[in-house]
Amino acid sequence: MPELPEVEALAAYLRERAVGHTVERLEVSSFSALKTYDPPASAVAGRPLTAAGRHGKFLDIGFSTGVASGFPPREGPADDLHLIVHLARAGWLHYRDTFKSPAPLKPGSGPIALRMRLDDGSGFDLTEAGTQKSLAAYLVRDPAEVPGVSRLGPDALAVTADEFAARIRSRNGQIKGVLTDQEVLAGIGNAYSDEILHAAKMSPFALTGKLTDEQLHTLYEAMRVIETDAVARSVGQKAAELKGEKRAGMRVHARTGLPCPVCGDTVREVSFADKSLQYCAKCQTGGKPLADRRLSKLIR
Crossing angle, helix 213-234 and helix 190-199, to 10 degrees? Predict the structure, then answer.
């Protein structure tokens, strides 16, 4: 799943490549992916693409009122439109310098959910692999209209150390789950939480209510280092290269069975119904393996 660094890099790439161009049209192939109907997808035609940013793991593509849009302008910021995209587990953005065919997408065009064509012949596809379709796009006048955005906690790279500690302590539970709760902190997902906890030398099952001030400070610093470094490595990469860059920078996540680059111990895994986590027992749990069953008594 794309997380804060990858979404930030996608936004930066769109700012470099797409901002300033005018939208020719927005085509919808997977109608279940577009969660809104007012304004319609046709409302972005003729509008300049003016901004690209993010809210946590949500990509925000902004459009201002265009002369050719055919929609009468209203007063104030309501003239702007935002395409808010959550790429979910298997979604991605593929930028095209040119498209093979000018013909509109047909409904159910393979993995393509939406396509945006720009005035210079370029544009991008929003795609989703697999059969479980979770990619979600919202065309809105205000990002706060998107339920997932309105519920977000402070951004992981904007929160202060004191606010971080207070928000972590506001939830009782295992630190892995709290760290990835988007209402607590926005932007951290399964992959980078593994990396943050490894850098902080903390068990993913440590209870938030038992963490000391020193442990929370260490965790905050680890979060800052891991996320800042990942953003620095990701921004400037082409969209097609981001997944490889993410994998190359991981120390424990998705590295089950490989040696920990810090201590050399074997990276271990705990599997759940729909996801897994990776950790180093020597670095994080005093050498004790965590039970790999959801209902087992977990070592903390």
Answer: 130
Q: Give residue 2's region: left, alpha or beta (phi > 0; psi -120 to 50).
A: beta
Residues 6+ apart with CB under 8 A from 214: none
pLDDT at 77: 42
As a whole number of angstroms, the distance between CA 274 and CA 294 comes to 11
Rounded to an integer, what distance in angstroms lies between the CA atom of residue 243 and that of residue 216? 30
Q: Which domain holds residue 206?
A: 161-284
Q: What's the pLDDT at 204?
A: 97
166 belongs to a structural domain: yes
Q: pLDDT tens across 238-259, in order?
A: 878 888 888 888 999 999 999 9
Residue 23's closest CA among 120, 90, 106?
A: 120
Query: Is residue 300 in a domain?
Result: no
**How do residues 146-181 score in pLDDT, each as one tens digit?**
999 999 999 999 999 999 999 999 999 999 999 999
